[in-house]
Amino acid sequence: MHINPTTDSLLFATDGTEIECVADFKYLGGYSNSVHDMDVRIAQAWSALHSLHKIWKAPIRKQTKIKVFKACIETILLYGSESWIMNMSHSRKLNGTYTKMLRVVFNTPWWKHTTNEQLYGLLPNVTTVVKCRRLSLAGHVVRSEEPASRLLLWNPDTKRRVGRPNVTLKKLIETETGLQGLELISAMKDRKFWRSNFVRCTSSEDE
Hints:
- The protein has 207 residues and is mainly α.
- 54% of the residues lie in helices and 4% in strands.
- The chain contains ten helices and four strands.
- The strands form two sheets. It has a two-stranded parallel ribbon with strand order 1-2. A two-stranded antiparallel sheet has the order 3-4.
């Protein structure tokens, strides 16, 4: 199959079989479309969260609940999030979902008027976690010297379509770091510099 064709012409394999054109596909448990993949992840995470309702209702320490939540729920929610391309609307949706999940975990209904600061404590914002994962993977890919390292920050020569430009992974990384071109590549290849300046999102719960 092929995705996002630039022309309407058909593509064929070496044996003459026509290659199907698709708008989205599933690979290694995740979908190529970030919005679809995030929606699926959210639904699966909610299902897993509700299946552990006895744990959330149990009188156990908050730190223990956090560890269970991060191990059993957050891993499902954020699987493949390193490649997600999110705008402000998607970020708000993910943040809202994460906050609602924490309220379930800590048995904190909305009518108690618990602020998000009190709810999260030392937990980092989930979109910050996604950002750190994205930048960590991007730096690893660039330093790998594999073909993917050349494609990650590749600028296509073709003229873009009329209309508002789509947010790309390259644009997202440039926006998040404030770096471009050779300056960005140089920073990504310096593992110590990259991790200390752009990949820091751990909380005391992880230490």
